[in-house]
Amino acid sequence: MKIDSTNQKQVLVADDEEPIRRLLDYNLRKSGYEPVLTNHGKEAIARASDDFACALIDLKMPEADGLAVLQYLRLHYPDLPVIIMSAVGQVKDAVAAMKQGAFEYITKPFDFDQLLVLMKSATQLGNALRENRELRESVLSPSRDQEFVGVSPAMQSLRETVKTIAPLDSTVLITGESGVGKGLLARLIHRASKRAAHPFVTTSCPAMPGELLESEMFGHERGAFTGAVRRRLGRVEMANGGTLFLDEIGELPLSLQPKLLNVLQDRQFQRVGSSETIAANIRLIAATNADLLDMVAAKAFREDLYYRLNVIQVTVPPLRDRPEDIPLLAKQILMRIAAAQKREPLEIGAEALGLLSTYHWPGNVRELENALERASAFCPGKIIQPGDLPPDMTRRAKVAIGAVALMDNGPQIGGMTLEDIEKLALRQTLVVCNGNKAAAARSLGVTEKTIYNKLARFGLR
To answer: Which CATH number is correct for 321-389, 3.20.20.140, 3.40.50.1820, 1.10.443.10, 1.10.8.60?
Structure first.
């Protein structure tokens, strides 16, 4: 995939001095660029876009200075090269800007030929960065050490399902809670398919602004809308011959659903701003943590699109339903962390493993990965102990263990009223938390004020 750098000529200019802006506007236009002029930092931030060839930012401006604009651009548009313009006495600050990621700086009054040379180099760098990023995204393959490990019947069944459906070219709908590994499953299906040698392209529907999603999905032509200064390939086109994975498909705007339906039905699409029809040689895998049938009933999701997506449905079970998989999962995660840190993998002590196996995992495997990454950072030795785990996780796991122990010797809840069950849960949680009401509130997922209100209501001390 080659980016057409000749089309990308738009330049973001920010300077509070009108004579400088006029000079830049005249000379840049004469040299074939399309300057977008702003007179202070906040306006530059508001007008920023990844479609600019580069940015010329004055160091000293009202509202937000050049360093503030630079920090914003580096965070939100890391592929956009920034050239800092400074006065002679501001060289120290300009050098500081270089250390924070500016491409280069130039002092006023500057030689315009020198500026053009800098801009040409900056534009070439920006195009290379964008091309590398898009290529990485389009050919991303799952690592061989990332598998759905586990001994539970659910995981064994899931692995068999992957073997069965991967060779097919059918659309797959993956369902399951957040963090269970729906994206990993999609990658594994792609890797085992006949399209494995071609791109695997991911699009997160909720992560992209609605006004940009159509362009990201289907691409656009130069001039299709304000700021479209070059042709851009969409994710569908980038996935040609391979697999397109749409994460959280339930967040796809209703306005775009007919276009996706057209891709699935007719295997073709059009870029924004073009009448040319392009063949869509892709396999679609979609994932959702929402109940799409409920959304269909609520008119929030198209029924015809749902049935086009739901050719083969695969559900990934939550981690709490397969605690027997936690030891193997934890070992795999720790080996991955150790490889990234270039050190020997840590082990998990029996007590810490017991807490992990008892915890209810609302964040599923993603939460387990985060917990073990934190434990790896805090563990002073080679064996992870309970104190190395996130405190709230440890506390909730202990509450669960204590509640089970109390229930073994206490009353059974069958036949009890809901109020009596609530009272029992409150009493047992306070016992396990040694009377600490703040800890009990966190364990029960309520506020501390609620705990006091319940105590008063139930007449407990």
So the answer is: 1.10.8.60
Q: Indicate the residue type of 140.
A: L
Tokens standing for 56?
A: 């010329």
Contacts of 442 (CB under 8 A, 6+ apart): 392, 395, 396
Q: Is residue 394 within 8 Å of residue 386, measured between CB atoms?
A: yes
What architecture is the 5-135 domain classified under in CATH? 3-Layer(aba) Sandwich (3.40)
Whole-angstrom distance, CA of residue 419 vs CA of residue 355: 29
Question: Tell me: the pLDDT tens digits for 83-138?
Answer: 999 886 777 777 888 888 888 888 888 888 889 988 988 888 887 777 666 555 54
Q: Exposed, middle or buried, 160 (CB in 10 Å: 0-12/13-18/19+)? A: exposed
Phi, psi (degrees; rounded to nearest 5) at 318: -70, 155
Q: Which tens digits make up the pLDDT trace of 210-249?
A: 667 788 888 888 877 766 667 778 889 889 999 999 999 9
Instruction: Give the right CATH number for 153-317 from 3.30.70.100, 2.30.42.10, 3.40.50.300, 3.40.50.1000.
Output: 3.40.50.300
Q: Where in the chain is the domain with CATH 3.40.50.300?
A: 153-317
pLDDT at 35: 93
CA angle 28/30/32 to nearest 5° reads 70
Query: Is residue 4 classed as helix, strand or coil in its secondary structure?
Result: coil
d(CA 73, CA 79): 9
CA dist 158 → 185, 319, 328 (Å): 9, 14, 16
